[in-house]
Design a protein that fits this description.
The protein has about 260 residues and is of the alpha/beta class. The chain has helices at about 5-20, 25-30, 35-50, 65-75, 80-90, 105-115, 130, 160-165, 190-205, 240-250, and strands at about 20-25, 50-55, 60, 95-100, 120-125, 140-145, 150, 155, 170-175, 180, 185-190, 205-210, 220-225, 230-235, 255.
Length: about 260
């Protein structure tokens, strides 16, 4: 499946700014081969995300934006898999009630699908600043969890976050991790993230793990949850058939998302 041309254009702008620090609008237009209107649209989005400033006639990489660029690169990695996972995730999200969404890039794709396809009496609770910027529709209520910003993870974490989740009545959660195995479960290398997601697992009845196939077989230091203890694990069609069979044999509700071809 081809990449979203708008996201691809913004990534090219970021790469150019990362090398030179700044560029004129004309230079960016020549780099992308698009209209001035399109360049200004890209720049407006990047400015709203806090990645650049816009001096007259140009664009400049915001000081300290390297961490944000790392997030953008993670967001772009395996985008076709994440899109497929997102479309399947929408099918398990209730149209009413409340849903917790963590700060992973995979769940951000799911949130974008939710924003496009769902509405009504739905509340999203999130630890992700990126998710907060996604919603433009007033039909979906968005609640930000309190806590401290981890700038590397782009996530709100800490004891306040854990305490906040203790008092919530949320029906469904979408979470992810850096790796998943049958022996180690869903894992992360960040202690505060593990604390928050363990609380999510304890408090929310239906938890779905959204994780692309490249993370199967990888493990990190801290366990979040065993995959057979959650409502389902949603992944993409790149998962090896033997791995899929092994997970299902252990009682995991493994949902393999169908990826659309470029002709669909």
């Amino acid at each position: 499946m081809p990449r979203d041309p708008l996201e691809a254009g913004r990534e090219r702008i970021l790469r150019k700014l990362r090398v030179g620090g700044s560029a004129s609008v004309r230079e960016l237009q020549e780099e992308l081969g698009v209209s001035m209107v399109t360049v200004h649209r890209h720049l407006a989005r990047l400015e709203s995300e806090g990645l650049i400033t816009r001096p007259r006639g140009g664009a400049r990489l915001r000081s300290g934006a390297a961490i944000d660029l790392d997030f953008e690169h993670r967001l772009a990695a395996h985008a076709e898999h994440k899109m497929a996972i997102a479309r399947s995730a929408v099918e398990v999200v209730p149209t009413t009630g409340s849903v917790f969404v963590d700060a992973s890039t995979t769940t951000l794709f799911a949130v974008r699908e939710i924003e496009k396809r769902l509405g009504g009496n739905l509340t999203i609770v999130t630890t992700s600043p990126a998710v907060l910027r996604t919603f433009s529709s007033s039909s979906i209520r968005v609640v930000a969890a309190p806590g401290e910003l981890d700038p590397t993870l782009r996530a709100i974490l800490g004891p306040w976050t854990v305490e906040f989740l203790e008092g919530l009545n949320v029906q469904t959660a979408l979470i992810s991790g850096v790796g998943i195995t049958l022996d180690g479960g869903l894992t992360t290398s960040h202690r505060q993230l593990a604390d928050v997601l363990r609380q999510v697992v304890r408090r929310i009845p239906e938890v779905y793990i959204l994780i692309d196939s490249t993370k199967f077989g990888h493990t990190a230091l801290l366990n979040i949850v065993e995959p057979w203890l959650v409502a389902g694990v949603i992944t993409d069609a790149g998962l090896d058939a033997l791995q899929a069979a092994a997970f299902r044999a252990r009682g995991v509700n493994l949902i393999v998302a169908e990826e659309r071809s470029s002709s669909t």
